[in-house]
Amino acid sequence: MYPNNLKYTEQHEWIDPESGKIGITNYAQEQLGDIVFVELPDEGKELALDDVFGVIESVKSVSDCFSPVNGVVKSVNESLTDDPSLLNTSPYDEGWIIQIDFSDASEIEKLMSGDDYKKYLEEVS
After folding, report:
1. pTM of the prediction?
2. Which bin fits 36, alpha (ψ -120 to 50), beta or left (φ > 0)?
3. pLDDT at 103
4. C-beta separation of 76 from 43 below 8 A
């Protein structure tokens, strides 16, 4: 459910330390419900830790996406423009949101592992 090769935030984003891809967790997409729109940032945008980089709109609510690290947006997942439901059906694969060139790899080590994130969810639920 929460792959251990990814790192997780308390805001329910994940980042792949290898590729720099960022998305929302399965828990987040379940809480949002059917996702109908995703606002993506421009490529080349500089992000600081916890900056809002996008907006997800679902039938239930609107939610901001927060950067888990400092860096620059390398690419965005244009597929989400045509099919935002990819965040529901494939949050860790086809539903990635942005890819970032992160400035400091040590920032990623401060994030939660899949097991730690699962424990965090148990504590806050």
Report:
1. 0.96
2. alpha
3. 82
4. yes
Measured over the CA atoms of residue 80, residue 108, residue 42 and residue 30, the dihedral's sign is: positive
Give the mean pLDDT of 87-97. Answer: 97
88: enclosing H helix or E strand: helix 86-89
Q: Side chain identity at 45, as an amino acid letter? A: K
What is the dotted CATH code of the domain comprising 7-104?
2.40.50.100
Enumerate residues 6+ apart whose C-beta is below 8 A from 88: 29, 34, 35, 95
Residue 17 burial (C-beta neighbours within 10 Å; 0-12, 13-18, 19+): middle
Token output for 49: 């830790």
DSSP 63: E
Q: What letter represents residue 11's amino acid?
A: Q
The owner of tokens 């949101």 is: 97
Angstrom distance (rounded) from CA 118 to CA 3: 10
- Flag whether pLDDT at 20 surpasses 90: yes
